[in-house]
Amino acid sequence: MRRALLLLVALVPAIAMAGFPFEATLEEMAQQADHILVGRVAGVDMVDGQGRPVEDPEARTGPSLDNTIRLLIQVDQVLVSNAAKVPDVIPVPLASHLHYKLGQIQEAHEGDQEVRLVLLKGSDFVGIKPGVFLRPLTDKDKALRLHAASHP
């Protein structure tokens, strides 16, 4: 329960930002996805604007800061991909213009082993919208149907 509350608190700034569309329907996600995977959050890291690791749990993201927090997604199964090779672990960036602390996101995902559907786009494996890429595994069949219908 504590983790769920922390995750909710971590996501509140995204919901509060008017004019920034951080929600996507399953249909939008499946239609735009280049990669549909089954995976789980294996860790959280942060890099600065030059791609160097940042380890200070108080380090922040937000406007005018060059830091990016990434969820490290352990890929358990590749369902769909246009990539020749899908990495075993994919660092997927969260929305870097939102105000987060590295430690806040690490704590929210500590011990998180939930297997989820992961929908990503591009050769750099990013979220469909900033930070939007995880769905419940129960959406798998519908996502595959929607993707197939939009990618004949």
Tell me the layout of helices and strands.
Elements: H1 2-16, H2 26-32, E1 35-47, E2 68-81, E3 89-93, H3 102-109, E4 116-121, E5 126-127, E6 134-136, H4 140-150
Antiparallel strand pairs: 1-2, 1-4, 2-3, 4-5, 4-6
Number of strands: 6
Largest sheet: 6 strands, antiparallel
* C-alpha end-to-end distance: 42 Å
Q: Return the structural class.
A: alpha+beta
Supply Rg: 15 Å
User: How many helical stretches?
Assistant: 4
Percent in strands: 25-35%
* Shape verdict: globular
Overall pLDDT confidence: 88
Fraction in helix: 25-40%
What string, H for helix and E for strand, traces the elements in order? HHEEEHEEEH
Please mark out the parts with pLDDT under 50 across 5 or more consecutive residues, or reply none. 4-10, 12-21
Signal peptide: 1-18
Keywords: Signal
Question: How would you portray this structure in words?
Answer:
Keywords: Signal. Residues 1-18 form the signal peptide. The chain is of the alpha+beta class and 152 residues long. Helices cover 27% and strands 28% of the residues. The chain is built from 4 helices and 6 strands. It has helices at residues 2-16, 26-32, 102-109, 140-150; strands at 35-47, 68-81, 89-93, 116-121, 126-127, 134-136. Strands 1, 2, 3, 4, 5 and 6 form a 6-stranded antiparallel sheet that branches. Helix 1 packs across helix 3. Mean pLDDT is 88; it is low at 4-10 and 12-21.
Summarize this entry quickly.
With 152 residues, the chain is of the alpha+beta class. The chain has four helices and six strands, in the order ααβββαβββα. A hairpin with a 4-residue loop joins β4 (116-121) and β5.
